[in-house]
């Protein structure tokens, strides 16, 4: 029986538009490979009926909530249909930046100081304690939604007077936010495909940090691949990335973001278990440098579906 592939996209997260772009690119590749594939918005299609409609495999292209948080994976496990990427538990962990960093820290991997703030705990009575915690991190700090991607809702706080406004703004994106010591340095990203590290990409962006606009809309953002790292530093980062990946039992394909700080030490930022596959996405750029065309990359990811 020939394969009939469901490329799942959409959802209700703020990354829905990126998901749609990823899906379109994946479908074009599968069409060129003469593989029967259909794009299905998970908000419109009854996922439990995938087998009933003759689908044999799933390519997950849903970013953020429902795609990278273990929910979709648990449904696909339940109906027993092979799918791309990490399993339910690793995705449920890695969507949560605080939990991911807590586990990494327990294994003595490098992460900068941070703490989690829940919207329920954000009260006038508790604000002094929150403020003191931020001061103990030493300004500036970053405020990030704990469970979202594409750098949405990230705010840099340089003055303690701006803290209240920053927290309230971040809570528009998530009920849990991460308050983290600002890391001054150079950002890199490293893709992993079937437990092999892809060429490292250096991200050179204008402005304060690598936000949504710099990722998707700013032509001034540059990506260096190969990176400017020495061979020794590239090896160091590759080993760190694999250790961070395997500790969380991730599998298939994904991407890890890091910063090389001013002391020339790598600091882990986060894992993306369903990286973007758009024309501007970093994962396909690294794969191309590795020698994989976009079509071959899509096929490689699909062949690992289980």
Low-confidence stretches: none
CATH fold description of the largest domain: D-amino Acid Aminotransferase, Chain A, domain 1
Please estimate the helix content: 25-40%
Number of strands: 13
Describe the structure.
The structure is a single chain. By secondary structure, this protein is an alpha+beta fold. The protein folds into three domains: 4-84, Rossmann fold (3-Layer(aba) Sandwich), CATH 3.40.50; 94-110 and 184-303, D-amino Acid Aminotransferase, Chain A, domain 1, CATH 3.30.470; 114-181, 2-Layer Sandwich (Dna Ligase, domain 1), CATH 3.30.1490.20. Helix content is 34%, strand content 23%. The chain contains ten helices and 13 strands. The protein has helices at 16-32, 71-78, 88-94, 97-106, 124-137, 163-170, 212-216, 231-247, 282-290, 294-303; strands at residues 4-9, 36-41, 57-60, 114-118, 141-145, 155-157, 176-181, 185-193, 196-197, 201-204, 222-224, 253-261, 266-272. Strands 8, 9, 10, 11, 12 and 13 form a six-stranded antiparallel sheet that branches. A hairpin with a 4-residue loop joins strand 12 (253-261) and strand 13 (266-272). Helix 1 packs across helix 10 (294-303). The chain is globular and about 60 Å long. The model has no long low-confidence stretch (mean pLDDT 92).
């Amino acid at each position: 029986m020939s394969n009939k592939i469901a490329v799942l996209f959409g959802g209700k997260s703020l990354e829905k538009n990126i998901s749609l772009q990823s899906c379109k690119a994946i479908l074009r590749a599968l069409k060129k490979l003469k593989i029967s594939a259909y794009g299905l918005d998970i908000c419109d299609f009854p996922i439990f009926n995938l087998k009933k409609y003759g689908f044999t495999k799933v390519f997950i292209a849903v970013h953020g909530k429902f795609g990278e948080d273990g929910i979709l994976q648990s449904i696909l496990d339940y109906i027993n249909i092979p799918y791309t990427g990490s399993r339910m538990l690793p995705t449920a962990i890695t969507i949560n930046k605080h939990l991911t960093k807590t586990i990494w820290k327990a294994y003595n991997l490098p992460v900068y100081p941070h703490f989690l703030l829940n919207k329920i705990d954000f009260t006038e009575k508790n604000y002094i304690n929150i403020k003191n915690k931020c001061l103990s991190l030493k300004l500036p700090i970053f405020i990030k939604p704990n469970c979202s991607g594409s750098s949405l809702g990230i705010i840099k706080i340089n003055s303690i007077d701006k803290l209240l406004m920053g927290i309230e703004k971040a809570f528009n994106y998530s009920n849990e936010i991460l308050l983290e010591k600002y890391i001054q340095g150079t950002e890199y990203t490293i893709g992993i495909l079937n437990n092999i590290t892809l060429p490292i990409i250096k991200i050179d962006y204008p402005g304060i940090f690598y936000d949504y606009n710099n990722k998707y809309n700013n032509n001034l953002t540059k990506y260096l691949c190969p990176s400017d790292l020495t061979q020794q530093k590239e090896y160091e980062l590759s080993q760190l990335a694999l250790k961070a990946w395997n500790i969380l039992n991730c599998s298939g394909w994904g991407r890890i973001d890091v910063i090389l700080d001013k002391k020339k030490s790598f600091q882990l930022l986060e894992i993306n278990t369903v990286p973007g596959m758009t024309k501007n996405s970093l994962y396909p750029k690294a794969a191309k440098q590795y020698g994989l065309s976009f079509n071959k990359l899509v096929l490689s990811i699909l062949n690992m579906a289980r």
